[in-house]
């Protein structure tokens, strides 16, 4: 499977009994391990008003991680563009690319990454979701700032994003529906689909992206990555035990009760209703959970169905050592080639 890239999506989970500071330190350790194991990139997702996720400000976390790693690509998976002005994002990622040339990814999404009231607070409007309709124009504006190429007659033609990077960060469009898939194809950009929470749309969106694709200066052929939930352990039973807390946390989020990642013991003893069990069984069907052989089979089956170029793996487990071990086992199962890196900087 050496032709398929493996990467990391880290939400910086804040677990029951720990602090956000500890969660961010765990993110450093995971990124350093991923680099040594040969993962291609590590991404951080923008979420807000979620006590169990510490990655609310991806550019800040990207800078922190990039300074503590050597060669792995670091980026956003993603920045929710309608939450920000295009100029601010261009300056932030222009700065990151200038500091860490050739290592920065700018994954962009159009959802707010939060609930309605928080989206209104972020976007300072009574109709926060209406801003998503401007996403294509805002994306064009962002790339114009990054490249210093806004056209004559544009109202911001005289405005420059400083610093201007020597090269544009690698831009990906993220999505969980057909909108971003089609837009990414039309613009000739790489596309990353959120299989980890919208699995039923994966194959239609990937087909739409490929059928819409037009070669560009950025990309000659379609490139697809999939976000996927994976928990690996020494055997299937242990992996299922470790995976349960994230499913309980997601259930509570959908019930309007976001919180920290519970312990495996709490997840095992939770009195699930029949409706809750049905909801979790449906969610569990799209996850890859098990020992090394089970995980390898699950990954190979997903790749056979989608022909994805890359998997961006997210692993939400309570203990940091268990999380790092999961990524080690996945790397071993998929024959990932380790990378020689400089000794890690102090966290």
Automatic annotation (TrEMBL):
Ranges of residues in domain Luciferase-like: 18-305
GO MF annotation terms: oxidoreductase activity
Annotated Gene3D superfamilies: Luciferase-like domain
Key word Oxidoreductase present: yes
Keywords: Oxidoreductase
InterPro entries named in the record: Bact_Lucif_Oxidored (IPR050766), CmoO-like (IPR019949), Luciferase-like_dom (IPR011251), Luciferase-like_sf (IPR036661)
Family: To bacterial alkanal monooxygenase alpha and beta chains.
Protein name, as recorded: LLM class flavin-dependent oxidoreductase
């Amino acid at each position: 499977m050496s032709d398929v890239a493996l990467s990391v999506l880290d939400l910086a989970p804040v677990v029951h009994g720990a602090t956000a500071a500890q969660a961010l330190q765990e993110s450093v350790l995971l990124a350093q391990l991923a680099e040594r194991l040969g993962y291609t990139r590590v991404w951080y997702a923008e979420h807000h008003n979620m006590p169990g996720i510490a990655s609310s400000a991806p550019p800040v976390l990207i800078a922190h991680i990039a300074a503590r790693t050597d060669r792995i690509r670091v980026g956003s998976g993603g920045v929710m563009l309608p939450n920000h002005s295009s100029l601010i994002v261009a300056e932030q990622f222009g700065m990151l690319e200038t500091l860490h040339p050739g290592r920065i990814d700018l994954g962009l999404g159009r959802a707010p990454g939060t609930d309605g009231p928080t989206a209104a607070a972020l976007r300072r409007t009574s109709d926060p979701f209406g801003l998503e309709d401007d996403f294509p124009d805002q994306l064009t504006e962002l790339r114009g700032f990054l490249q210093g190429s806004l056209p004559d007659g544009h109202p911001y033609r005289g405005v420059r994003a400083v610093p201007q990077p020597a090269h544009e960060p690698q831009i990906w469009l993220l999505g969980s529906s057909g909108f971003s898939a089609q837009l990414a194809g039309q613009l000739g950009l790489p596309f990353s689909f959120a299989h980890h929470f919208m699995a039923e749309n994966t194959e239609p969106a990937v087909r739409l992206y490929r059928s819409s694709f037009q070669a560009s200066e950025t990309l000659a052929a379609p490139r697809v990555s999939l976000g996927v939930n994976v928990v690996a352990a020494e055997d299937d039973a242990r992996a299922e035990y470790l995976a349960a807390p994230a499913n309980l946390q997601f259930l509570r989020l959908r019930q309007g009760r976001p919180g920290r990642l519970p312990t495996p013991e709490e997840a095992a003893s939770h009195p699930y209703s029949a409706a809750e069990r049905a909801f979790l069984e449906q969610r569990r069907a799209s996850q890859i959970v098990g020992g090394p052989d089970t995980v390898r089979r699950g990954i190979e089956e997903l790749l056979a169905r989608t022909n994805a170029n890359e998997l961006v793996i997210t692993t939400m487990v309570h203990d940091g050592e268990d999380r790092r071990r999961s990524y080690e086992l996945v790397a071993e199962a998929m024959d990932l080639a380790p990378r020689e890196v400089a000794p890690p900087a102090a966290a």
